[in-house]
What does this fold into?
Amino acid sequence: MMTHSDIRKPFPWHILVFLGPGLLIYLTVSVYPLLDTLRLGFFSEDESGATFFVGMQNYANLLFSEVWSEPFWNALKNNLMFFVIHMLLQNPIGLLLALLLSSPRLRLSGTYRTLLFMPTMLSVVIVGFVWQLLLSPLWGISEDFMYNIGLGDYFDAWLGKEGTALVTLSLISVWQFVGIPMMLIYAALLNIPEDLNDAGVVDGANSWQIFWNIKLPLLLPTISMVSILTFVANFNAFELIYAVKGALAGPNFSTDIMGTLFYRTFFGFQLQQGSPTMGAAVATLMFLIILIGVAIYLFFVQRRIQRFQL
Amino acid sequence: MLNKMTLTMPWSGMNKLTLKPDLGKKLMVHAVLLTYTVIALFPILVILINSFKSRKAIFNDPLGLPDASSFTLVGFEEVLARSSFDVFFFNSLIVTVLSLFFVLLFGAMAAWALTEYRFRGALFIAALFAMGIMIPIRLGTVSILQLMVDLDLVNTRTSLVLVYIAQGLPLAVYILSEFIRTIPKELKEAARCDNVSEYKIFFQIVLPLIRPAMATVAVFTMIPIWNDLWFPLILAPGESTQTITLGVQQFIGQFVTDWNAVLSSLTLAIAPVLVLYLIFSRQLIRGLTAGAVK
It folds into this structure.
């Protein structure tokens, strides 16, 4: 008679069949290239295309050499600025819209929601061109509008000037993506039990106090998640700058961010020769920046918030 | 301000106590939301209405609707004549549909394997997929291009489909796993007692049950693929494999002074997304508000 432990289980083929195809594609097209890129960052290429190990040389070049360090730090600084503007505008506006959308018995809330989210659906390429046309002094729509509200003298070719181009592009991006924090925060607001609000009202709190003392603390996990999503998306951005300003991120690299720097380094542009290994080094640094952001979120923000909720 | 105004409104006298503070507040809420809706839609509307106008009307009266004298389709005719919009559109369609199909199929299968069966490495594989939600696949572009060159897939739609499957899988596995966990055990156990095969359990019991979650994943997966510029630019920039996003980007670059054509090409690129969005917006919003991406 066989005891229970004698029964040898047949190889679980079905697990392999279920998991295999997805895992195979994910490993070959996503995980392996990512690891290989990290490896390539330590190599360099000679004229024949042969690669050889150079250790930290690419990184040393990027961070400190005369030719590379200036574009790198410039792109990083611009990218930070791009991110800060999103944090200061996109997420607070999203929060405000979500609060308004969630007001009890609001008519047409479904319609508002659908319409407000619309720009988020469009390709960044299209959004870039739409705003380029609207802000173009040639067409004059924005100029006329500024004159009509009495601010005509302040109209300028914002996208064309070094001092304003990056801020203008950030605002365009904020315009497009405000729907994401709005929706996520709105969803979180719907999950706050009515009783809490009612309790606040009974205790004589006004709307501001209810927001500040009841809703905001409960929204913190969502807001921090929105922040990390914004961070990853911003430090991975490329399309908008490329669509409006081209790979050179003009004027005079004032709109250059990590994504455009990566593209130029990898493929080269005009006078600059492209280099896969140098591109890999830039991508690795982007990877590290994003990883640090995600790590801070996971280990500090999320953990603390969970404790706070208890 | 608005609160005070409502006090003097005759029709608010009926039920002063409840209506008074409420109505003012409501008006404020609508005013802000309406203003922001205008800000959100104005640029899109300007492009759509001007694409149907003559060049003269575009410049003289940019905000006017097209009328009998200014209506023209010349921009659209030019776009269709001078570029292969139909080809680009078809490329986008086929790439998006194929990627979507495989993301849903492989994603659901992997999610099922990871949540249903206990095996060594399951946790590690789940963590590997989870990382893909945060780490953009774009960072591996240098090696992805190398890989596609080695596989002789550059300038094919296959290369795009492969990349988009890899890009879409992490979120699909995550959302579908959450959903599969809610399927009652009894259902599966009953089937197993009847000697139903694991494959049949998955395809005939589980898949139909997770259809709502699949729809959510579909919408979240579809939009970034349709709108992507980076991978078409790098992996398939050839005339015959261009997607519509890349096609529009290049077309506008070439015809930047031909306003009719530029506005029309923008409209052609916006329209499909808007239609799709209006059809699926309920699903998308439900997915977002159901906390699917928590």
